[in-house]
Amino acid sequence: MTHPSIPVAVLGASGYTGGELIRLLQMHPRFRIAHAAAHSRAGSRLQEALPGVRGEAGGLILSPLEAPLPAEVELVFTALPHGTAAIRVKEMLAAGRKVVDLSADFRYRNEEVYKQAYELEHPCPELLSEAVFGLSEHARQAVSEARLVANPGCYPTSTLLPLLPLLKADVVDESRIIVDSKSGASGAGRGMKPELLYCELNEGVRAYGLPRHRHASEMEAGADLFCGRRIDVHFVPHILPMTRGMLTTLHLCGRNPGDWHRILREAYRNEAFVRILPEGSLPSTSFVRGSNRCDIALEVTGEDRAVVISCLDNLVKGAAGQALQNANIMFGLEETLALPQTAIWP
Ligand SMILES: NC(=O)c1ccc[n+]([C@@H]2O[C@H](COP(=O)([O-])OP(=O)(O)OC[C@H]3O[C@@H](n4cnc5c(N)ncnc54)[C@H](OP(=O)(O)O)[C@@H]3O)[C@@H](O)[C@H]2O)c1
């Protein structure tokens, strides 16, 4: 029996995460791209804005963001800069559509925390309590009932997936959580920035976002939301001369680290997209590139300490892939639909 397709829209289709959504949606057996919109690239064909796209979607003309959507659209992905996404999200919900927002605009329940982290007044704070923070593996039930899913950031996803089971098991010292992350340059989006020019990025690695990168507060809010724990995260992100990928190392202290590998294995034993590597193996961004997987390894480094290392593709599990995973859950579809479990390797 064939099922009717579900028309979807992508606002911000010309960006890196929007483009990745288009790629994944083209492989989806149930979602159909009915509308795509952009800001400065509005008026172009999708295949001009995204040279990798072909087929029916490639011929779509990118609409301006404020253009009305076809009435049939049931689900909207907003892949827009923070601050600009919120108002579109509000319009979409008012028109009776479901939304998965990839920006940071609905990731916090507390308006003040958003204001501090993003230095912006929230344009629709009344929606913050309704939004579901969509870390799929930990929020399935809430996502399945949501109208609005706030897709987590890439750094918080790579941190919370390994951290939450250990916090829930009450084995880590919450006051000393050191998170050291490395990201590929696509994490900064497609906009023109001098520090992302080839000559300024190539052959170098640099830290940024200090003293407190805004994703630290999202990690802390996630630990509070899922575990009721007030953690103190010491987070340092770095940018590397690679296109995609994120490697996060958590330096953790606590009780019985010899038991932590078992805790992680049990937490994720039935999960399609989270793989706990065998003891002694270490992950690499090149083992997850293009996939919706997060690979996690653990090494005990002392009587009361361990490092936990996670790898994911920032554009897939860190953005568009998790957004599609959430959309599958929201529509009662098989969660893994159109989401690669195998990486592009080498
Ligand atoms: N990149 C990542 O790895 C990643 C991971 C997780 C979450 N996110 C979040 O996802 C969202 C999109 O990120 P991205 O990396 O895809 O960004 P991007 O590559 O810069 O794309 C931004 C999109 O928004 C449009 N846009 C740009 N400036 C705008 C403005 N002033 N008003 C309205 N629309 C505007 C662009 O349209 P034109 O191209 O037509 O100008 C483009 O379609 C952001 O909120 C980001 O924080 C990104």
Indicate the overall shape.
Answer: globular
Radius of gyration: 19 Å
| Major sheet: arrangement of strands | 3-2-1-4-5-7-6
The CA-CA distance between the termini, in Å, is 38 Å
Number of helices: 11
Find the count of extended strands (DSSP E, 2+ residues).
Answer: 14
Could you tell me the mean pLDDT? 97
Helix content: 25-40%
Class computed from helices, strands and strand pairing: alpha/beta
Strand content: 15-25%
The biggest beta sheet, please? 7 strands, parallel
Bound molecules: NADP nicotinamide-adenine-dinucleotide phosphate
Write up this protein.
With 346 residues, this protein is α/β, with parallel strands linked by helices. It is built from eleven helices and 14 strands. The chain has helices at residues 16-26, 46-49, 55-58, 85-94, 111-118, 136-144, 154-168, 198-201, 215-227, 260-267, 316-330; strands spanning 6-11, 31-38, 63-64, 75-78, 98-101, 132-133, 148-150, 177-183, 206-207, 233-239, 246-253, 274-276, 294-302, 305-312. The strands form two sheets. The protein has a seven-stranded parallel sheet, sandwiched between helices. A seven-stranded mixed sheet has the order 9-10-8-11-14-13-12. It is globular and about 60 Å long. It binds NADP nicotinamide-adenine-dinucleotide phosphate. The site of NADP nicotinamide-adenine-dinucleotide phosphate has 30 residues, from helix 1 and helix 11.
